[in-house]
User: What shape does this take?
Amino acid sequence: MSKNYTGSKSSLITTEPYKELPPNSYVESASNGSHQQDELESNKGIQPFLPNGTAPTLSVADAIAQMLANLGVGYAFGVAGGAMASLWGALSNSSIEVLNFRHEAGAAFAATEAYFASDRPTVVFTTAGPGITNALTGLFAARGEGAKVILLSACTSSPQRGRWAIQETSTYTLPSGGIFTPGALFNYAITIESAAQLPQIFRKLALALAQPGGFVAHLSIPTSVQTSLVEDISLPQLDISPFAITAPKQAIAKSAELLSAGPFAIWVGFGARDAADEIRQLAEKTGAAVMCSPRGKGIFPEDHPQFVGVTGLGGHASVLTYMEQQPPLRTLVLGTRLGEPTSFWSSAMVPTGGFVHVDIDPEVPGVAYPHVETFGVRSDIKTYLQELLQLLPDALARSTPLLLPCPEREAIKQDIDYPVRPEALMSAIQKIIVEGSDAVVMAECGNSFTWSTHLLQFAQANRYRVSTGVGAMGHAVTGVLGAAQARSGKAVAIVGDGAMLMNNEISTAVKYKIPAIWIVLNDARYNMCHQGMKVLGLKGADATMPPTNFAMIARGMGAEAMVVVRESDIEEALEKAIASNVPFLIDVVIDPDRPAPSGGRNKSLAAQGVKSSQAKNSAKPVSFPAV
Assistant: This one.
């Protein structure tokens, strides 16, 4: 779920030829204010659409670049190629900042994280054939995370289709369904065969980007069409405020009635990230316990006495303790799908009175727990809470607040220096990065995810990012560039050695002087797989890899780097990384045999009757990370 929106208006004027958009023609979210006019007028080398009768000099590629800039796009990430040379040139000569990556998947992950760091739509550009297919995993992640990303790709011109063109992209070589048409991957997809299509496309994109929630689009432009000239085309002049989704007053009243019937808990998800103040007001007014999904860390301060922990993967056993010892009558679910990484669909998380589930997507409430009574409310979270707070009686607050369980924090013994224990590394990251800087912290999938989610503690929203939808290796490794670039500040990726070997963009960070930091948990294993197979009692599968000196690789690409093999050296390395003005990698040789934190997961599975040893003898199948 993307930024919350307020207000709704739309006017389309198509009677006059397009010249340029008027001031404030594209309005961003209320938190960022309106798009600045100087940005709209800063298109380098791009001429406006011309009045009728004037000789056209503007190409389709230039028109698309101008259109995207007017829609608020600030960054384009991608890999160039001959089939999209004209489009690449148009983007490079526009007000959009173009970053040339080494792999299309990395570009798509970076674009996703740039959106969340800036709250502005981003662009991914690729050439034909493998350029498109390489980007699909990152775009799939963008859709799952709720980002606003537009893919611009090149495709084979119609006269050459079916004739074995270089990197031919047509229905002869690629399935059109799902790649060039709307579906599970793209909310909107179209092949531009004529400049006459641009006004309609521009209007559709503008309206879609003003809607709350994510939006992933694909514009495929044949090579010959990119260079064709725009003639007698008028783009609509749009004055569109972001749309809001507000619940009917009856739904708010019913919610207040249900929540007033007894003690309730609040389950916070990533979709509620813009309602941090309202969530805290509601919790403190009612005394409700608060828990969050892995993506929701920090929206409600994790050091607050009413915070009982993170649920799901890498979560805290204190959540299950709360549900067992002080069960709420109902749970108010805000902006989370309650999918497997968040809930494991555990029956222990179901309150006796069911859920009040609020989301902007009407298909979300009731899906994760279809057998549980759920009152679904379609609404923007912030607006919903503001209205709910007015209806809930002050008498709802407990006269004597309950003493709630809090996440377990085990003391770290100081008598070990080598090898580095992951929990000692996380303690140093907490001190130097989380508490000592304003850097955004991202965790890669795998054990990096579980260690970071379980042990790091955030008191502010929008400082921690993980992917729980696609969960692709390489997301944080490359996404960290987009986050750092879009926020013009530090972003830190906590990653495993497997992900770092799979897809990194150190060279790209060096080229653009992006202040990204990589902290590599180097254990010469795909350790979630290694540890998971061991717990399952399955032998013979090999999850090891040759030891790698990542610091040497990073320095070979022009970044700064350090190797850490002792716990006493961790803080110094982190301080140097934060102080550096260039990309920085810390290669931490960790103890591979320290079991990743999965106590909350194991307890949840035990509550469902699932055993995590010797899968072949278990009545129910188990797998990692579900161990």
